[in-house]
Amino acid sequence: MKTIIIDDERLAREELKSMLLKYDFLDIIDEAKNPDEGILKIQEHKPELIFLDIQMPGMNGFEMLQKLDEIPKVIFVTAYDEFALKAFEVNALDYLLKPIDPERLNETLQKLQQPEDEFTTELVGNEARKEKILTNGDKIFIKDGDKCWYIDINTVRMFESDGNYVKVYFDGFRPLILRSLNSLEEKLDSRLFFRANRKYIINLNWISSIENWFNGGLLVTLKEGEKIEISRRQAIRFKDQMSL
Q1: Model confidence over 208-235: pLDDT tens digits?
Q2: Domains of the chain, CATH where assigned
C-alpha cells in the first residue's frame, strides 16, 4: 500500500517511518514537511494511505484535505486530542496521539487489512459521534467552497458517491461534501432515503416510476428524470420494505 507521511517535524517523520518498517504491506514512498508539499506529493504519487499531522504552518491537515480532488485513506497523527471528533467527521481511518503507542498503531493498521463491508462502515470513536437522524421536515446546512445552502432535507432527491466526496442533488445544484456515502447513510432516515447501490442513495418521495431491470434489479426514474438502478441485493430489500 503506497503511503506518504506528512508532518512538519522531521523527528516525528523519522520515528513514524521506523515504526512502520515491520509492516510489509506498507510502502513508504515519500514524505512531506508541510501541507503545500503534501498536496504536490499526493498529486504526484497518488498514495493509497497518508499519515497526516493536523497542526502545521500555513494550513492545518483538515484544510489540506479540502484542497485535494481525491483523498486517500487518512490516519491523523497529532499531539492534540481536541481534534478527534472532527477527524472522524471527515471519515478518517483513525486518530493517533503523539507519542505514538506501538500497540495502538498496530490496532489501526489492522483495520487496513480488513475487507470493507458492502454497505456499512464501522464508526470508530466514542458516544459523542452518534448523530441525530435526519428525517422529514429537518433542515440541513451544506457548504461547498464559498457557497452555502440551508435547505429542507425533503428537497434532496439523491446523493451520489464521488471519490471521497458525496454529491448532493437538490433544485439545480449539485454541491460536494467531504463525507463517505456509508457514513451519510447512517445519518439518514431509512423511511425517507434508500440505498440503491454502492454509488447512490435516493429520496423515496422523488420516485416517479419503477420497472424491472437486469439480473433481478430495478430501474427507478426520479421526478427530475434521473434514472438510478437498484442492485439485485438492494431490490430484495426494497420490495420487502415497500410491499404491502
Answers
A1: 999 999 889 999 999 999 999 999 999 9
A2: 2-114 (3.40.50.2300), 139-242 (2.40.50.1020)
**Model confidence at 183: pLDDT above 90:** no
pLDDT > 90: percent of the chain: 57
Q: For residues 230 and 242, is the Cβ–Cβ distance under 8 A?
A: no
Q: H/E element holding 19?
A: helix 10-20
The three-state secondary structure class of 108 is helix
- Predicted model pTM: 0.50
Helix (H, G, I), strand (E, B) or coil at 27: strand
Residues 106, 203: Cα–Cα separation, whole Å? 40
CA angle 199, 202, 72 (to 5 degrees): 30
**Greatest pairwise CA separation for the chain in angstroms:** 64
CA geometry: angle 65, 181, 109, nearest 5 deg: 60
By C-alpha distance, which of 214, 213, 216, 188 is closest to 202?
188
- Does 121 have pLDDT greater than 60? no
Closest to 118 measured CA to CA, from 208, 242, 237: 237
Q: How far apart are CA 156 and CA 193, in angstroms?
A: 10
Query: Looking at the DSSP assignment, which residues form a beta bridge with residue 200?
Result: 160
User: Please, where are the H alpha helices in 92-217?
Assistant: 102-111, 181-187
152-to-142, 156, 205 alpha-carbon distances in Å = 11, 8, 13
- Structure confidence by residue, pLDDT tens digits, 37-66: 999 999 999 999 999 999 898 899 989 998
